[in-house]
Write a structure and sequence with these properties.
Layout: H1 2-14, H2 17-24, H3 35-38, H4 46-57, H5 66-75, H6 81-93, H7 99-111, H8 116-127, H9 145-153
Helix pairs in contact: 6-7, 6-8
Organism: Chryseobacterium luquanense
Keywords: Membrane, Transmembrane, Transmembrane helix, Ubiquinone
Protein name: Ubiquinone biosynthesis protein COQ4
Length: 161
């Protein structure tokens, strides 16, 4: 039964993401880098880490959706269906609001209710992170990946007296 539910979610994603990009991302431009160019970035950079992510998973960049793949890296969410839904909960906790995201939350919760505790934990994790969902990560590809990830995971900057 779980296999069938997973196939349903994949079907819904494959049949909605093109429309999402067309109608909700029409003003956004695609990144000026491809997967191969990302691999030429400095070894510890976000760009190189993202290039390796594509290479290791056999993925291709989806135009106008590049930030989504960065979200996987900085949130430690895998690409399985339940973690994709959990990542949307995390982004919701981080302050992201869109009709598409709300649809994923609703459908994901209905189709996989047994993961709701995980989803709630992801939501709380998103609340504990700096607000990053609106960042243009293309501008940060040269940054040290670990430093960037650590910065995002800190909700507030520590104050030293």
């Amino acid at each position: 039964m779980k296999k069938l539910r997973t196939k349903f979610i994949i079907f819904m994603y494959e049949n909605s993401q093109k429309q999402y990009r067309k109608y909700f991302k029409k003003k956004k431009r695609q990144w000026q880098f491809n997967e191969e160019q990302l691999l030429s970035f400095k070894e510890d950079s976000l760009g190189r880490t993202l290039g390796e992510f594509y290479k290791n998973h056999g993925f291709r960049m989806i135009p106008k959706m590049e930030n989504h793949d960065v979200y996987h890296l900085i949130t430690d969410c895998s690409t399985n269906i339940q973690d994709e839904i959990a990542m949307q909960y995390l982004l919701f906790g981080n302050g992201k609001r869109s009709a598409y995201l709300l649809g994923v939350l609703a459908l994901g919760t209905i189709v996989f209710p047994e993961y709701f505790k995980n989803y709630l934990n992801a939501f709380k994790k998103g609340q504990q992170m700096k607000t990053f969902h609106h960042w243009n990560f293309e501008e940060l590809l040269w940054q040290n990946f670990d430093s960037l990830k650590d910065f995002i995971k800190q909700k507030e900057n520590p104050v030293f007296y």
